[in-house]
Specification:
binds D-malate, 8-stranded mixed beta sheet, 12 helices, alpha/beta, 8 strands, globular
Length: 266
């Protein structure tokens, strides 16, 4: 069931299912909470899964303008307040990982652990910032169809693209329904985000780095480099998956996440 809470003046949609250690799942760009459906289905019998549409995405509203990673992180902390959850495991994919880094800087006492999925710590290089500005203009002028067309081949592993048409379609549908205003706000926020590399060695709780073996956007070497800088880090490479590992190989991702969550209880 979808719930709505007014967080910092904005109606945020989220689901809250299951019992056990609270876990918040933060989606990537330009997606929504449904990218985590396979994790919710498999893990809710053992963990409490809190899954928001971050502001401007899915069914959540956002005022126009840039949305910083700090703003998304503060929304996450305020949603936990609303649910009277003091501490949660924070799981973020790609942009969700950028938000998890901001959460670590601003709300460290609220985290029991982090799972950084298919993400990177480095800030954008100038070319990446320029291509985000282009994408924002294209989305404003032409909607999400060209964005989906350009992004999907980079988001999925070659094997997913060639032999899992249902996953390709599902991802396309999610991207096509992303609200253009939310997309533009997040693009500006991602372009402006700081380098999170210095945050890695400050993480005071265990961190899982999970990455699709064929992730072309934030490859396994990147995840390995982040893990090496993290005091209590663990790296898991997910076979048969690209940047969207939780959708492409949910069984392997669910096994890695549940083993990590179980380890935090001990
Ligand atoms: C994502 O999956 O969230 C995006 O690839 C992040 C980005 O554009 O940097």
């Amino acid at each position: 069931m979808t719930n709505t809470a007014t967080i910092h003046g904005v109606p945020l949609a989220y689901t809250d299912t299951g019992r056990g250690t609270p876990v918040v799942l933060l989606h990537g760009f330009p997606l929504d909470r449904t990218m985590w459906d396979a994790q919710v289905e498999a893990l809710h019998s053992r963990f409490r899964l809190i899954v928001p549409d971050q502001r401007g995405f899915g069914e959540s509203k956002a005022p126009p303008g840039a949305v910083s990673m700090d703003r998304f992180a503060d929304d996450t902390a305020a949603l936990l307040d609303h649910l009277q959850v003091r501490k949660a495991v924070v799981v973020g994919l790609s942009m969700g990982g950028y938000v998890a880094f901001a959460f670590a800087r601003r709300h460290a006492a609220r985290a029991r652990g982090y799972a950084f999925c298919d993400t990177k710590a480095a800030a954008d290089a100038p070319e990446a910032r320029a291509s985000r500005a282009d994408m924002a203009e294209r989305a404003a002028a032409q909607g999400m169809a060209p964005i989906a067309h350009g992004m999907i081949p980079r988001l999925l592993a070659p094997s997913t693209l060639s032999s899992r048409p249902e996953q390709v379609d599902r991802l396309r549908r999610i991207i096509l329904r992303a609200p253009v205003e939310g997309v533009r706000g997040a693009l500006q926020g991602m372009a402006d985000r700081p380098d999170s590399t210095p945050t890695l060695h400050t993480l005071g709780v265990p961190a899982l780095f999970l990455v699709g073996a064929h992730d072309a956007l934030s490859p396994p070497e990147e995840a390995g480099g982040m893990c090496a800088r993290t005091p209590n880090g663990r790296l898991v490479v997910i076979p048969d998956a690209g940047h969207m590992a939780p959708m492409e190989n949910p069984e392997a991702v669910n096994a890695a996440l549940s083993a990590f969550f179980d380890g935090l209880k001990a």
